[in-house]
Structure formats: C-alpha cells, structure tokens
Amino acid sequence: MTDNDHNSHSPINPNTLPNFDNMPNVATMDTSHVDKDQPPFILVDGSYYLFRTYHALPKTMQNSQGLITNAIRGTLNALLKLMRRYHPTHMAVCFDTKSPTFRHAMSAEYKAARPPIDIELVEQIPYIHHLVAALGIPLLRIEGAEADDIIGTLAYRAVEQGHHVVISTGDKDMMQLINDCVILEDSFTGKITDSAGVIEKFGIEPHQMIDFLTLMGDSSDGIKGVPGIGKKTAKDLLNKYGNIDTMLKNVAEIKGRAGKNLVEYADDIPFNAKLATIVTDLAIGQDWTDLIINTDPCAHIDELRKLYSELEFKNELASLDHPNHPANGSASIADSQADAESQAQVAKSLQSSTIENIKDSKSHDKAWHTILDMPAFESLLEQLTNAAHFVIDTETTSIYWRQAEIVGLSFAMQAHEAYYVPLTHRLEGDELIEKQLDRDTVLSRLKPILENPNIGKIGQHLKYDAHILSHYDIDLVGALHESPNNWAMDTMLASYVINAAVTRHGMDDLARHYLQTQTISYEDVAGKGAKQVSFDQVAIDIASDYACEDADITYQLFDLFHKQLAEDDNNAKLLYELEIPTAQILCQMEANGILIKRSFLNELSKRFDEEIIALEKRAYEIAGEEFNLGSPKQLGEMLFDKLGVPGGKKTKSGQYSTGEAILSKIDHPLVEIVLEYRGLSKLKSTYTDALDAVADNETDRVHTSYHQALTSTGRLSSTDPNLQNIPIRTVTGRLIRQAFIAPKGRVILAADYSQVELRLMAHFSEDANLTHAFKEGLDIHAATAAEVLGKDVADVTATERRNAKAINFGLLYGMSAFGLAKQLQMSRGEAQDYIDMYFDRYPGVKQYMVDTRASAVNRGYVETILGRKLYTPDINHSNRMVKQGAERAAINAPLQGSAADLIKLAMIAVDKVLPKEQAKMLLQVHDELVFEVDSDKVEEISQLITDAMQDVLTTTAVEKGWHVDFAVPLLVETDSGQNWDEAH
DNA sequence: GCATCATCTTA
DNA sequence: GTAAGATGATGCG
Description:
Blueprint: E1 8-9, E2 41-45, H1 46-56, H2 70-86, E3 91-95, H3 102-106, H4 108-112, H5 119-122, H6 125-134, E4 139-142, H7 147-160, E5 165-168, E6 182-186, E7 191-193, H8 195-202, H9 209-216, H10 231-241, H11 244-249, H12 256-264, H13 269-276, H14 301-311, H15 314-319, H16 331-337, H17 340-353, E8 359-360, E9 367-370, H18 374-386, E10 389-396, E11 406-414, E12 417-422, H19 439-450, E13 456-459, H20 462-471, E14 489-490, H21 491-498, H22 507-515, E15 517-518, H23 522-526, H24 540-566, H25 569-592, E16 594-596, H26 598-623, H27 632-642, H28 660-663, H29 669-694, E17 701-702, E18 705-707, E19 717-719, H30 731-737, E20 740-741, E21 746-753, H31 756-765, H32 768-775, H33 780-789, H34 798-812, H35 817-824, H36 828-841, H37 843-859, E22 861-863, E23 869-871, H38 880-913, E24 919-924, E25 928-934, H39 938-950, H40 956-959, E26 972-977
Parallel strand pairs: 1-4, 2-3, 2-5, 3-4, 5-6, 8-15, 9-12, 10-13, 13-14
Antiparallel strand pairs: 6-7, 10-11, 11-12, 16-17, 16-20, 18-19, 21-25, 21-26, 22-23, 24-25
The protein binds a DNA duplex (11 and 13 nucleotides) through helix 27, helix 29, strand 19, helix 34 and helix 35.
C-alpha cells in the first residue's frame, strides 16, 4: 500500500518566518459572538495519537501478515469517540509532514533533531491516512507547516467566525490556544482541559502558557528555558507579574537564582518564546468552512471495507453491513464495532496510563481473613501444608532487615484470597494487643512448613523475608517442581528478568503496571514523614487489609509471570537458574558482613580532621576572609569574583563550576588547598565516619544491602553502606581499604575477573586483533597502543599506553570524539583521528558498534551473553541528545550486562564448592568477589575459587543449559592479605 | 523536613 | 562517553 497524497495541500515556504509580534492570540481573543449551540469544529492532532497510541498500546495488536496495528486502532478509536460524542459537521485531522518548517530555519538543533521513527510506526501511517479519508474526514498535511500551527490557525479563524472548537490532543503546548470557546480533549486518556483545567494543572491562565513554557523550558521541544526556574518558580513569577515583559522590567526585585538568571539569560528569552509559540496566522488556503465531514454512508464504504479486511478489524468490518455508517457518529454502532478483545486491550492500556482509571484492589470480591485464634490458625496450617506452593509475606517494624522485628505474616494460596496472622501489634503504650496469637508458638508451628523444600515459596523480594525469618531461626526454602532451585518465585526478580526497564520493581509499581491496580500505600496505613509509625503501631484491622493485599497481589503477579515465563524458556532460566540462586547467596553475604577495624578508622578520622582544620586556616589566610570551603557556590564566588582568577565557567544552573576537572587546570594556591580539602572531607564523611557509624556494635561487622532489581544492565547495587565504591585509586584513599580486615586466623582474599568487559567486546565483535591480544595474554592497553601506532609493544611509551587505555574504556562506553578529547585533554580532531586509526586496526569492533545500534533500533533491545534482554526505550527518541544517550547505553549494555551475568554465575559456582567452615563470601564489586578465608587454607581455596570463576562458562553455565563458545580466555586474578588493600 | 544540585567515590 | 550511591550545601515550604 502506498501513501496517497490526495489530501495534501500546497506548501508553505519554511524560510518565511512568521511575524511573532503581531501574532493573533487565541487565548485572549473576543469570543462574545460565538454560538455554542452548534456542534463544535473539531481539530485533531493526528501526530499526537499516532505516537501516543503506538507507544502505549501493546505491539501484540497485529494482523496475520505481522503488521502491527496498535497506532491505527488507537487513532481510529480516538476519531470514532470524537464523532460519537460531538456529532460534528466540520472536522480536520492534521499531521506533520517530513519537510522542514520555519522552526528548522530558526534553530540548527531543530534541523538536526529529526531522528527516524520506528519502522513499525511508519508502516502504520499510510493506513491511518487512508482510514481518515475513507471515514469522510478531511485530512490536512501541509508541506512546511506543523500540525500545531495548522491547528492554531484554523482554531483562530473558526472562533473569529463564530464557532467554538474542540482541539483533540494530549499535548500541553496546545493549552495556549484555550479560551471560553476552545477546549482540549485527549480522546486517549479521556481528559478534557478548559481554562479552569489549565489553572488547576499549572496555576496559570492559558494566555500565560507561552511565557510559562519559555521560562520553564520544554526539553521535548528543544526549548531551553531559564536555569533555576522550574514549574513552580515560573508559576509564582507569572502570578506576580502577569507576563515576562513586566517581570523583566521589575527584575531587580526578584531575589535569588531566578532573578539573577533572568538577567543573565534575558537575551535568550525572545528566541525561546518564538519556539514556544504556536502560529495562528499561517497562509493556508483551507478555511474551517471547507472542512466538512462527508456523512454519506455510501461514499467510501468500499474503501473502508477493503481497509478493515486488510487490517483484520473484524467487528468494524461487520459493522459496515449495519444500516448506519460509523461516520454518522452513531453511538449504537460505534460501541459495538471494535472487536471485544482489542477494546479490552485498549481499555487495559488506558488504565495503566491514567491514575484516575486504575482500580483499587478492594473492588474485587475478596476473601481476606485475619487469624486471631488457634482453630483458625490450625486450619491455615493445614492448608499451607497441603499446598503445592503459597505466597508468604512478612510485616515488620523496619525496612532495614538488620533492625526489623516481625509484626505479622500474610499468606495466599490462590488469587483473591489471603490470610494475615498478626503477632506483635501494640497499643500506644507499647503494650501487646492481647487478642493476637503468641509469636513464638506461631513461628515454631510454621517452621517445618517454611523449611519444607517440597512446598513452593512465592514472594515479592524474598531475600528480605528470608532475612527476617532467619532472625527467628527459620530457613526459608521451597521451589516449584519444574524448577529445581530454591524458592518457587520472586515476583520482583521475575519482573526484572522479563523487562528491567519498563517499570521499577516494587510491588506498588508491579500492581499498577501488570494488574492495573492501585495498592494501599504504606503511607496510607502508617502515615508519612516524621509522623510515620512502625507497622506494629498500626491497628490490626487496617494492617490486615494491607498485608492481605500484599499477599493477594503477589499471588496474582505470580500467576501472570508464571505464564509469561512458560513462553520464554530463557527468561525462566535467568530467573530460576541465575537470579534466584544469586538472591540466596546475597542473603548469606549480607548476613556475613565484613569485619572492620574500628580503632583504625577512628584514628584516620581524627587525622583527617586535623588536616582539614589546618587546610581551612590556610585557605582563609589566602582568601582574606572565612568562607565555607565545602560550598561550591561560595568557592566559585571567592575564586573567580573576589580573587579574580581567570577561567571561571558556569554550570547550567548559573553558578561557577568548581569540579575537579576545572580546578586542576588553575594554578593558584587556593585551588591546591581546596582539592586536598575536598579529598579529605570526602574520605572522612563518606567513609571513615560513616563506616564506623553503621558497623554492628557487638561484632564490628558492616552489613551492606545489595539491590538486585535496580540497574538497567543486570548489575547489583549496594547501599547502607555502599561497599562498591570504597576508594582505591589514591594512596590516602587506600587507607580506607586497610580498615576492612579478616578476623584472627583468617585473611581477606579478593578474586577479580581481569579486563572482563574488553574480553566480552572481543567475544561479541569477533575482532581478530582484539581476540589475538587476549589469546596471547598481552598487556591489552599496550597492545592497543602498539597496534594503532604501528610500533612494537616494547616501544610503547607510558603516555601512549595511557591514551590507548582511555580509548579502550571509551569503546565500552559508546565513545564519541568529544568525550575522548575531554578525557585525554586533546582537541576533538586529534581524538577523532585516534578513533579512526583504532577502527582501522579493529574493524570487528567498529562493526560491533554498528550492529548493536541497529539491533537496538530494530528490535528495541540488546542481549547479554546469557540472552538477558535489555530494552532500550529511548533509542528512537525525538530529542537527538536523548537518542544518542540511548545509543551509547545500548552499546555498553551487552558488555556491562554480560559481565554482570558472568559474576552471578561465578558466585553460584563458587558458592557450590566453597568449604563453608573455612571460608565466607563477603562482597561483590561488579567484577570482583571478596572472601575471608582460613589463613592455612589460602592457597587451596584460592585455587578453588580461581578455577570455579575461570571455568564458569564451560561448567556452571553448561549445567544450567547455556552453551557459550567464548572467544578468548577468562582470566581471574587473586590476592590475599590482612586487609582488603593488601588483597588487591 | 524534603528535594535538588554539585561533587566525588567505584567498576 | 556506561552503570551506580552518599554527602553537604542550598532553597523551598
């Protein structure tokens, strides 16, 4: 099918800039003459529906030819909805065209910022154009004009001539066109916005919308805005001054950053205002009176029939034989016409995208029970014993597992039914509420069931519940029969494996996204902020609803994910063979903790403090006055204003940039002091003081928490404290590492994968040179320098090696010449030459970059070595910067993500062979594992770990069904010593 | 009291 | 240029 241009109109010269000074203003025009009894003139922002429905509706809407039809259906539904609602006589659907407009002429960025649209959407566009035509609705595409401006112009003319207007769009920029007789209606979300709606949403009037956007900026439209002025400040300033002109006249009285930046960026305001303004006086031929809907049922019925059958819109097709034509806007037909399934899909997607339409989970028929007596508990025990699997959730006094005590337990054995067993809810005076069952009795009766490996355990973030239960000497185990590994399902990890990027993986997020259900929030039951109480202070009936809902929702999620995983064998394997076993190991590692030498940390802290004070004193002498050395703002003003040092650059929020990269270029005694001050105060506050504060007072061990469902690539993250960013690069920083020690009779042993991401690059790219270097065991950075410069490895200088190292890292990060130039302090051209030389010598690597970008664009995801799909949602973003960012992330993701897969496999492999009496796994730092090991077994255990890690792809991975023919050797380096520094 | 910015730490 | 988390300063309510 080809696009049919019979509805396109004569071009507008994109180089002719509109006259913004005399632009007619829809929001402020006179509307007293408008007759509201007539049906409104409807202007549809076709481009909005195209993009919105394409991204919001499932891609599973397809015909048997594999054509995705979600945007076609979504846009069609929007049109039909409008016709049903208004029975309009005049209407137009407006689309952008590909040709440049005056906005391109205004801004170079605008010109460059036209990325390709997803092919799956492009394919749908001609169908939409044809459908609009076949429905008898005028379609407007004007070369050189944007849909927004066509709509603005026609809306103005219609109102001028006495008609009221409905603009069908969800684009907030269009709010500037609202007045008494012009409203916006988003037919996808159902939201209608009039003047009151604008005031409610942004606190300003529609006629202030242009100024509002100009001040605040709008990244999606490339409007920069004034730094330091966001939604809120823009609103307040407009309320005070009415408009930007008045604001600028009184700018002297505007305090703070906003006032300062208004002056500084005043010159940019007119330009931004133009970008934000919708044109209302385009020289287009059509008048609203020309845009008549053809309501003759027979006019295009054959065309419609053809389209519906090709698209396989069955119910729409059937409805054509009905006496009424859909273009009549007959409600009875329109309601019956979309087929039930796709209507349901549309409805589902709608619910997930608008909070107002989300169910609350209580609207179901529910059977939620509170267990308060032994007979009821006995009955529950019997059900749990006989269940193949069930959901368990613990309620506790804290979100930190280390200090949490159990308050109650909830269970679910099927959807829509749940049980809560309150144990230690308290009255205000901390007294236990009497009617509850005894905690220890309940736990001891549950213990055999929770420890029974044949009864599957399901939960949301089970690592947490496992920690809690282990406080009470219960070892939570129990898998599904079809998956051998422990725990039947962790819904958080399941969601993470299925799609790490589509949503966060907290239960509230999962309920909203997958079940279209808004759960009771913790704040609802326990209050928020300082007034929040712990769960044992929540009344039992309220707590029971909350806890039962958690278990119920978790069960429903289990049902859903179980089905989804049955259809994707690799995802199931990633969950059951990789993530869940990893979670169990993490649970042990967190519980182990790492011993620290408190006295040493305290000494360091004291030493740092003395040096900091001395530095402050010297700084004040140089500056001539006291100021806060830790304040970038005060430092910037002191250095660049008061002391008059040249080289001041400002950040986007208007203050001087004083980052290390800038300061280290400045030759001034104060700078030296500041850099040393910063280094020391960072070490003191973030490490020496903080570690001492979080260490267990009895055991002197520090227990981090690993978050397993957070990063976009599959890496773990570590918090409270973060033990993945302990210093190593500087001598002083390394002192911190010396505080991490082993207990008497043991040593710290660290094992890390050498150059794992570059090896993965060699594997994926199959580049002959890179592969060769690793196979020969060369110093990879020196080898790169030698290769690129065409000299012998032995002749490579230190600088040459350093540059090669930077380029190797750059590769992993999706490097640009700009970025490399900054890193190496060379010109962009030099950096580009260097990159060109590199790609000339490593053509496989270049090809990998090209292929990975293409894969991300075409499929919407990239894959790791174990087949984990990492989705790249912004890969076709309309903003060029965002898109390029997504491309770099897409290049990096398979490398970083595969390294994460490998270390998880390694943890599982090592855990299996590690003699638990003689060694403990303590930490994971992305490509490194840290252990404490009996001193007399170091050699032996070190070898055990090295072998397990190096052979992981030929042993553990294969056992679990992943067959990877890795292109280069995996190398593990180990070392040991009295502390973590010595072990590295 | 809470959110955001700038800065700095790691792989 | 990728991926994270913690801190102090600052500004807002």
